[in-house]
Amino acid sequence: MSRKDPNDDMIGFKDFLDSEDKTKPIGNKRVDNLNYEIISFLEKDAKRLDKHISLFEEKTFMIKNFPQDSQIIVELETSIIEKRIAIINHTKNNPSAIIANLSEVLEDHFSSL
Amino acid sequence: MSFPVYKKISINSHQKRLIYSQLDQVDFGHQPFVFEMSHMITKQDEALTNIEAYLNEHSINRFTYPLIIISNIQNYTGSLMVVNSLDKVPRFFKNKSKQLSTKENQKLKYVELKQTHMENLILEEFEPIIKEYTRSHKKIYQLNNENEFLNLLTKKIMR
Lengths: 113, 159
Hints:
The structure holds two protein chains of two kinds.
Chain A: H1 13-19, H2 36-65, H3 69-93, H4 95-112
Chain B: E1 7-10, H1 16-24, E2 33-36, H2 44-57, E3 67-70, E4 81-83, H3 102-120, H4 123-157
Parallel strand pairs in B: 1-2, 2-3, 3-4
């Protein structure tokens, strides 16, 4: 019940507040059981399978019908043969250069392996 | 509908007949499998050979989900993944299977759709193409190494 104080600005309003039920309404509170760890795992697995499908369906088609490897191999083999010939010719003409530098070159190469 | 987490299967015999009948019950391609045989005291290698033979004879698809063997065999060089304990299997599929919510079930159905797509692919057609691609790329790698060495040699001796 309200206190009958004429100077109280909240007079009348307090009665309304006191009459309201203090307990919170329960309503349809949905219990959220979503475990995002499992959803994330399943999404990742779906992506993984997608990549497999893409590899088998699209990439193998491209590899089979438009192969690039044979051309690259031919280019590399040609380049290697040209370089070998150039090195042999150079060492024939200037034998001292190879003697002077070969140990250094081989050391550099094999130490980096 | 099986959740794609590891399913452990204990291999208790090395005999071909028993292994084949045990593997006939396994639904490959829907979840990863771990075949445990480290508890076998002898003839683990024979059991492994029989498993390999079964997989080859039945053209089992091992691309969709891995198939891992837990064994004490050392220096194995075959096509299967052999580890000596469960701790060494890839962690990705180490999840706990439990009751799924509606949303999780929807995702699982999508995964299952992809599994069916993989099942419908005729992998025998693609395997030689991929193997040839791998072989040629190994050759390119070796040739490129040789080419780089010759480049270095040329640069050093011609300066």
